[in-house]
Amino acid sequence: MNRRNFIKTSAVLGTAASIMPSSLFASASNKLQVGVIGTGLRGQGMTRLLLDRPDLDIPVICDIDNKMIDMVLNVFEKQGRPMPKIYKDGPEDFRNMLSKEDLDGVYIATPWEWHHPMAISAMENNIHVGTEVPAALTVNECWDLVNTSEKKNKLCMIMENVNYRRDIMAVLNMVRKGFFGELIHCQGGYQHDLRHVKFNDGKSAYGGGVEFGEKGFSEAHWRTQHSVDRNADLYPTHGLGPISPMLDINRGNRMVHLTSTASQSRGLHNYIVEHGGEDHPNAKINFKLGDVVTTVIKCAKGQTIMLSHDTNSPRPYSLNFRVQGTQGLWMKDNKSIYIEG
C-alpha cells in the first residue's frame, strides 16, 4: 500500500472506529481494551473521557509519577470503574506493558520526547496508537511512525483536537464546496501566553512561582526545558493540522520547503525577574527559544502557509487562522468571512 492510499484508508478506518469500534479491533472482551501511558493532567482528562464510554475498558496504565498516578486512580473510583494494573518501574517500563498486556489501543500523553518511542513500541506489539502532539521531534522520527504503521498495519493517530472544532470543520466544508475559489494562502499558529504553564511554584500546575524542571510541577517539570534547548516552532500542529486537509496535503499536494525565523528571546527571562527577582537562579538561564517564531512553507501546487509560534509574551489567545482563496477568505481573529459577489 502506498502512502497516499494508506492515509485515505486510515481516515476511513478512523471514521469506522468511531461508529463501530468493536468491529474494528479484535479483543477477547466485548469492550475495547485501551492502555494509557502518561497520567498527568492531560492524561487524566482523556482517561475521564475514555471511561465515559460503556464500550471501552482501561485495564492498565503506565507512569513514573506517583502523585499523578494517585490522581488518575481517583478518576477510576469516581467513574465506578475497576482499578487498573499499574506499570511504574522506571521510564522504560512502558515496553513491558505493551509487550505483556492484551490491548487493542494505547493513548500516549507523556513529555514530547517519549511520544515517538512509545508509539513505535506499541505498533511493533500490534497495538493501535493515539498520541498527543507533537508525535515526533525530527523528520526521521516522523518517517519512523509512517513506516512502522504501514509495516504493522496499525493506526497511528495524532490527537490534534483543533482539527475537530466546529468552526474548523465548517470552513473545511466550505473549502471543499469551493466557496473560497482556489486556495492560495493559509495561516495558523500557536499564539498562547504560556508563561504561567512554563513556570509555577512546584505545587500547583499554573503560576505562583518561577520554578521549572526538577522543582516544577506538571508541564513545568518537563516542557520548559524545550524553551531552554531549542529555538524553533515547538508546537506547529494546532495551526498546521487544520490547514493541511484544506490544502489537500498528502492527498495530491505536499509541502516542499520552508524557512523559519525567530525573534530575540526576552519574555521568559523578564517573567522570572518580575516574579522571582533578579537574584533568582533561573534569572541566569539563557533561553534559546525566540519569543516569536515565524515559518513560511511553500506547497507543491503553489500555495503558501505562514505559521506563528508565540508563547513567551503577554498576549490574548489566538491560533491566527486565515484561509484565503481567489474568491474570498476566512479570518478567525475578527470572525469574518468575505466572499466576492
Automatic annotation (TrEMBL):
Signal peptide: none annotated. This is Uncharacterized protein. Residues 33-158 form the Gfo/Idh/MocA-like oxidoreductase N-terminal domain. GO terms for molecular function: hydrolase activity, acting on glycosyl bonds; nucleotide binding. Keywords: Glycosidase, Hydrolase, NAD. Residues 169-341 form the Glycosyl hydrolase 109 C-terminal domain. It comes from marine metagenome. Gene3D superfamilies: Dihydrodipicolinate Reductase, domain 2 (3.30.360.10), NAD(P)-binding Rossmann-like Domain (3.40.50.720). Its cofactor is NAD(+). Belongs to the Gfo/Idh/MocA family. Glycosyl hydrolase 109 subfamily.
